[in-house]
């Protein structure tokens, strides 16, 4: 099993809330730093581990090692296939605030609609219609 792991810079809880809304899902598990090691991380509410499903794919999330400078130099790109253009655009409408478009959504020979963007947390997404 391959599990994508998304890293944030202290805004993981905000990202979870946005992804829950955009992908109509809920986080299955959230562990804060102070839950993990109360002595070392007393009062630290950063997320040390969270799990959720996005389009039936398990995804891990946490508040360490995030894309601090929102660099586009990334070797990983998350692709989500939607059933319809309407579903894709509805999800993007939730995620677009603070994002930067890399490739505009266009029709291609392999997809009714496809495009790439980086969300406000520095995660690079590719959306397409299957």
Q: What attributes characterize this protein structure?
A:
130 residues, alpha/beta, 2,3-Dihydroxybiphenyl 1,2-Dioxygenase, domain 1, four-stranded mixed sheet
From the spread of the alpha carbons, the general shape counts as elongated
Count of helices?
Answer: 3
CA-CA gap between termini: 22 Å
CATH class of the largest domain: Alpha Beta
CATH architecture of the largest domain: Roll
Which regions are unreliable across 5 or more consecutive residues at pLDDT < 50? none
CATH topology of the largest domain: 2,3-Dihydroxybiphenyl 1,2-Dioxygenase, domain 1
- Tell me the major beta sheet: 4 strands, mixed
Characterise the protein shown here.
The protein is an alpha/beta fold and 130 residues long. The chain has helices at residues 12-23, 33-36, 85-95; strands at 5-7, 27-32, 47-54, 57-62, 78-82, 100-106, 114-118, 124-129. The chain folds into two domains: 1-66, 2,3-Dihydroxybiphenyl 1,2-Dioxygenase, domain 1 (Roll); 67-130, 2-Layer Sandwich (Signal recognition particle alu RNA binding heterodimer, srp9/1), CATH 3.30.720.110. Helices cover 21% and strands 35% of the residues. The strands form two sheets. A four-stranded mixed β-sheet has the order 1-4-3-2. Helix 1 (12-23) runs antiparallel to helix 3 (85-95). The mean pLDDT is 90.
